[in-house]
Amino acid sequence: MAKTRTSYRCSACQHTVAKWVGRCPECETWGSMDEVTLLASVSSRPGASAVRAGGASMIPTSPALPLTQVSSTSSIARPTGVDELDRVLGGGIVPGSVVLLAGEPGVGKSTLLLEVVKQWAERSPQDIALYVTGEESAGQVRLRADRTGAVHERVFLAAENDLATIFGHVDQVAPTLVVVDSVQTMQASDVDGVIGGVTQVRAITSALTSLAKGSGTAVILVGHVTKDGAVAGPRSLEHLVDVVLHFEGDKHSTLRMVRGVKNRFGAADEVGCFELREGGIHGVSDPSGLFLHHRADSVPGTAVTVTMDGKRALLAEVQALVAPSHMPTPRRAVSGLDAARVSMILAVLERRCGVQLSSREVYAATIGGMRTTEPVVDLALALAVASAARDTALPPGMVVLGEVGLAGEVRRVVGVDRRLAEAARLGFTSAIVPSDQRRGVKDDTAGDPPGMRVVRVTDVAGAMQGAFERRRK
User: What range defines the domain where residue 181 resides?
Assistant: First the structure.
């Protein structure tokens, strides 16, 4: 026997109560209690009454199916047409998924998404994109689309910030991709709270997620970030969506990076590289050249290393300048590197390798606006500073990999094979790596890139000897 009864469930945390209240007693969200129909049943099985005595069960909207009967074709990613973004997404956007793209103001989020909706609409006549903006007028978006060449007849534009009106546009246009720019500017009229507040953002994200799951329409949400770079709004915002991407970039550089933070459909450590130009944003499939200063011969105070950003190997040039100082405390200036690790490397060079730096000013920086804190840069920084102090350049075509310890030892790094392969692809002919990188392998040269001479060292002093002796030869 079964009978129905009415209860109220919170749309934010799914907490259920018997009587309507204005504020959820579990998550303390205002105006989130919705009326639902519950099924209270009494079973003849022993113990079933005791199990059901304390509550009721929901009426299922669809039957539970064996896992073998669940179709997997509905979760196949569809390419957006922007290769670098597809790389981070794991092949493309999955129908019915919700993607959150967060970044600082002016970094280029809207420009990137205009390119996405244009490429999406060009794929087939059945694909329609709806771009909803709550921050700009329709005319402003059209001007940007004209400048970047993102105008297409199957890209629809709506300048709205009311959630109910947006749902009306979705019903009329029937898009396969919806972009909401941004979620902090949208408002649900039936939910209390200010625009951009915790209650409003959570309710809007929950509603758009339900839309995506129920209709199979892919949704991309643009989110703001706080001063420390985290996604603005409640932490539950990142749990509600399927994919979280961070759009990063320095205002003094044209380089932009899309970094995967969460991805239910693929790897969450991928990075996509873009270059922001006057005519729009363009993917950079080979970004290593942006971080290198191309010259015929090496100069004192420079060293090249290979960093790993996600699964992508990027070559980076480290520069150092050592100059005499007339101040009691010589200056130390760092750009793009971890200042604490730079101080440690300077101390190791002076104490373990005899490089006099206590009375000299030291400046250390990376090229192209790159910022890295990976320990693999330690040895390259040490050789760059030693090169600047000796006024002797490192051999041309050399890359340096290794973490430096306080005792002056060079420690192993992860993914050396991939790093050396990337360096060899770009024309580098020699490398200095930690000696224990291939521990247990009888032939130390096995697996080295063809045509590359690899020198393995145990400490910084050995690395300096190998680098500068080869330069003299």
Answer: 77-285
